[in-house]
Each structure stands twice: as structure tokens, then as C-alpha cells.
Amino acid sequence: MPRILDNINKANDIKSIKPQDYKRLAKEIRSFLISNVSKTGGHLASNLGVVELTMALHLFMDFPKDKLIWDVGHQSYTHKLLTGRKDQFATLRQLDGISGFPKREESECDAFDTGHSSTAISAALGMVKARDLKGLSNKVVAVIGDGALTGGMAFEALNNAGRLKSNMIIILNDNNMSISENVGGMANYLAKLRTNTRYTGFKESMENALTRKIPGGREIVHCLKRSKDAVKYFMLPNMLFEDMGLTYIGPIDGHNINSLLSALKNANRANKAVVIHVITKKGKGYIPAEKNPSRFHGIDPFYIDNGEPVAKNQTASYTKVFSSALVKMGKKNNKLVAITAAMPYGTGLSSFKKHFPDRFFDVGIAEEHAVTFAAGMAAEGFRPVVAIYSTFLQRSYDQIIHDVCINNLPVIFAIDRAGITGRDGKTHQGIFDLSYLSHIPNLVVMAPKNKWELEEMLEFALSYEGPVAIRYPKGEAYTGLMENREPIRLGKSEIIDKAGDIAILAVGSMVKTAVMVKNRLNDYNIKVTLVNTRFVSPMDCEILEELSENHNVFITMEENVRIGGYGQQVSDFLCRNNKQDIRHINISLPDKFIEHGGVSELFERLDFDAESITRKILDELQF
Ligand SMILES: Cc1ncc(C[n+]2csc(CCOP(=O)(O)OP(=O)(O)O)c2C)c(N)n1
Ligand SMILES: CC(=O)[C@@H](O)[C@H](O)COP(=O)(O)O
Ligand SMILES: [Mg+2]
């Protein structure tokens, strides 16, 4: 039988599908997604949950005139399918392929680039205001998950939207899950709304009574639903959203296209912001994902039959090393507490949670709050470890300065996914943290060269009476240089090899590459001194002074953009100390947003692999 999906080749084609075929189309979309994501990897569970919701939105809206903003954007695959990107799906998240997130440069139907959580309502509200100022009448819809609704920005936007006097629709896609279990007061509140059968029951029995018992009642209900006041008919009084000035519709079955369409049409009549509370099942239609939505939130290629991963990682990741080290440290120090912003698995804190449930805190997708919450605990004598990905910690810049560093509090930042993270692309690369952290007074910034040094740095951080940030990359922890175990001292680097008149100063993850570069240079008879910088702040000026006496080339290497990075600090040092006769080769990432692709593919494309770096050095030295 030909697929209905094959009749959908561009935006709005779904409108020509017969309503009796919607169910079949939803099924076809699910099997398309499962089949493709099993090969490319991606955010499967969230996407399976919003198939009908996306279909309903596409039946309701006109693209690209109307604006649809996906919060986080990890659930936008069906939207991509329905807007002419079906044939590119095999390239999802691959180098030069389509992105796993909405991208304005990819399609005019993608209204806003997302990737970080809780931005959609703000962006949508901005678009509503712009629409009204331009005198247009297009629809603006934001889709935000129950997890993303725990983020501060979402509340700031709702607060602002409460005063709106024109139409804006906010779909609250409630699947009762963040990546892990959704936590906190908002999650509890939504749970109450979900189970509020009293309200739904009341509405249904009113409707039944009117239609059955009153002559002409059916017409009354019909008119009521179509009238300007229809939104009131659906609203539940005395609720958070209502009290804030928004209209609430729901809860609605997010897998029933007809219910979704009538809710959307009703919401569209209001001259204010309307929240449609939609209940969906994360992972719907694929049993392994329904059973384990957390594992299928973001998944590497897997076998469809059983959901097992195609490749099994044997070597320990930095996350795993951090996870075990923290448990060990937690056993020795009962003041140690661990904090995550909704990523207990990704950051490796789930193990700490298991051992010390009372000393573990998941604060929701709230990185700003996580940092100031840690500051509060530190001020009262605890030793908080805040584990956050480099890209998400960008959110907390002011809290790090104002709440942690001005107070000079002993908070440890465990910064995972620092460097190129790969397939999530521009929004998720952790390439700015050295720049946004190393100029902050009081903050010590470190990066380990290998798995043992990560543990040693954590121990050092715990013994230090001030804030410390330790950054480490995604993936396998380096197990080379096991013998190099010089004790860690504040602001002191470690000399791995001393030879010749060229010095390589490598930061953290780049030590591994530097070892390979050094060996390649040795093949050309170029002798190299290799330094593991350990600290980016405070920078080890003594070693720079010492090396400058018998080295005439400094090569700095860091997995961070150039501006504000370690290399620029070294340049500045050479300049300030009148050492411009020393040649400085700065190996860092380009000052641009880096697209999606495999980590090693991106390294090659950016000339950041050992081979390309060696070639660059040889060229610069005119060898
Ligand atoms: C600022 C920020 N912190 C953390 C994340 C990681 N993250 C991506 S999706 C997600 C959970 C989102 O839950 P929800 O909004 O309910 O969507 P669902 O996955 O359930 O569809 C998290 C924590 C992020 N994208 N942005
Ligand atoms: C959408 C999102 O922000 C997360 O799901 C992110 O993709 C997780 O990255 P890791 O897979 O590296 O944990
Ligand atoms: Mg959710």
C-alpha cells in the first residue's frame, strides 16, 4: 500500500490528507522516525510523543506565515518531516546534514533557532508584539515541555504574557518527564491538573446535561464552543495560569487530533495569551522508548528489535570518572553536596544520588538558580559541587560572578561537555567556558589531562577555600600519561617533557593531542618541551618566564575559542613582558559557532586533529 507520508512533500501538504487517514499518517510518521533515528541517533522519545500534536498544529497553522517556536527544539522532527525535509532525514545530525534542532537557515518554516531550554515563550511573545506593531494577523504558537517549564525564563515570559491583549498560544506539552523524572513544585502542580477529573468530569456532565436534557441544548453547546467566550467555557477557575492573566485550556489528550484541533481553534479566538495543557506520552508507539523514555531521550544508533545500542562503549568517560570520584569523596566528607539542573544521568550525578539521596539536589532546568542555591549552601558551610554542561552554564554567568565569586565561596563547578560535543551542533558545543570564566576574580579554572588528574583536581578543589571550575570533555577519558602524577599546586603547571627550544603548552583535553603532535614533530627531529598547563586561572606565569629563557617558540593548545582563551592570555603575557621575540602559535577553535557532526569529523574539518595541527606548526616554522 502506498504511504500517505509520500504525499507530503512540502509545508501545508498535510491539509489535503483526509481526516480518516490521520491515524495511519501518525503511524507512518512514527515508523519513519524510529527507522531513521535508529541509524542516525537523536532525540527519539520526545519526538514520538508529539506526532499528533505536530500534525494538529500543521492542520491549524499556515507555514511559513504563522510562527511556531519549539522550546529546546529536540522534538521538532515531525515538523521537519511536514515541511519538506523528509528526503534529508538520513542526514539528521550528520556533518552537513539537517540539524536535530530548528534552524532558520535550514527552512523558512523554522521560526526560531533553539537548543537551550525555556526560551520559547519569550521568543513567541516578542513575535506577537512584532506582529501587532506591524499590523499583521499571523498566528504565533510556542510549544514548551513540562520540563522546560521549570526554567526561570519561562516564568519570566509567562509573567510578561499575562498582560497581553492579543492572541498568543502556548502549548504546554506535558509528558510528565524531563530527561529524567520532572521535579519540583511546578511538576507537582501539573500532576494535580492532570488528575483533575473533577473539573473535566464537571465540564463533560454539563455538556451531557445540556445536550440531552434541554431542548436546543446541543445548539447551545455548539454556540458556546464557537463563541468569543468559548475559552471561558473551558477554563478552570482559580488557577495559577488564570490568576496570572492567562487563559488555561485543558488537560487535552495530546494524541487525539480532533480534541487538539478544537482546543486550538477555541484558543485562537481569545485576545490574550492562552495556555493549552496537552498530555502526551514520551516515547509513544515504540515499546522500548515508552518503557524507558530517559534512555531514549537522546540515543545513539540502536537495533529496532530490542532497542539495544549498536556500539557499546568500553572505556570510561570523563563523566563516569567524575561520577565515581564524587561518590568516593562524598563518603569521606559529609559536607559534600551535589547539584544538577535536571541532568542527573548526563552529568553522572545519579550515582551520588543513589548513595546520598539527602545530599543530592535536582533543581529542575534552572542553571542560574542552581549556582546561587549552591552559593547559599556554601555560605552555610557545605561544599557544593554543581555539575553542569559547559553550554548550559553560560546561563549562570552573572550568578557565578555575583553570588559565588564576589562572596568568594567554595563552590566547585564540574563542567562536563567542555569542548566540541558533536551532533547537537551550534547550541551545544562547549567552546566558550574558558573565555567566560577565566577573567573572573577569585575563580580558579582547571582542566585535567587524563582520568587520574580529574579525580586529583576534584580533591584539590575540595581542599581549596574558594570557587573552582574544572572543565572536561564529552566522551572517553584519556588514559595516557598515567605516570605523570606530580601533586597539584595552585596555579602550577606540570612539565611532561623538557627538550629543545619549542614549548607546547596544552590545556586539559588538548594534552592528549599534544602528545601525538610532539611525537610527530620528533619524527622531523624537532625536539619539544611539553607542558600540561593544569590551570588556566590563575595562569602559571612562572613557567612562562622560565620557558622563555631557553625556548623561542610557544605553542598553546586549547579546546576553546581563541578570544578570551588561554592562548590570548599567553600572548598578553609575552607582550606585557617584552618577550615578543618569542614566536607564539595559538592553536584554538575558530571564533564562530560550530555546526553539528561527529566529534572527530569536526576536529578534522576545523584542522584541529593531531595531523592538521602538526602540519600547521611545520608550515609556521617553515619546515
Ligand atoms: C538550559 C538547558 N539546560 C538543560 C538542557 C538539557 N535538556 C534538554 S531537553 C531537557 C528536558 C526537557 O524536558 P521537557 O521540556 O519536558 O521536554 P521532553 O523531553 O519531555 O519532551 C533537558 C534538561 C537544555 N536543553 N537547556
Ligand atoms: C536536547 C538536549 O539539550 C539534551 O538532550 C542534550 O542533547 C544532551 O546531550 P548528551 O547526549 O551529551 O547528554
Ligand atoms: Mg516533558
Automatic annotation (TrEMBL):
Q: Which cofactor does it need?
A: thiamine diphosphate; Mg(2+)
Instruction: For this UniProt record, give its keywords in alphabetical order, as a comma-separated list.
Output: Isoprene biosynthesis, Magnesium, Metal-binding, Thiamine biosynthesis, Thiamine pyrophosphate, Transferase
Q: EC number(s) in its UniProt entry? A: 2.2.1.7
Q: Where does thiamine diphosphate bind?
A: H74, G115, H116, S117, G147, A148, N175, Y286, E367
What InterPro entries does the record tag this protein with? Dxylulose-5-P_synthase, THDP-binding, Transketo_C/PFOR_II, Transketolase-like_Pyr-bd, Transketolase_C, Transketolase_CS
Could you tell me what the cofactor note in this record states? Answer: Binds 1 thiamine pyrophosphate per subunit.
- Span of the secretion signal? none
Output the PROSITE patterns linked to this UniProt entry.
TRANSKETOLASE_1
Pfam entry (one): Transket_pyr
* Subunit architecture: Homodimer.
Q: What is this protein called?
A: 1-deoxy-D-xylulose-5-phosphate synthase
Q: Which organism is it from?
A: Herbinix luporum
Instruction: Tell me the classification of the organism that encodes this protein.
Output: Bacteria, Bacillati, Bacillota, Clostridia, Lachnospirales
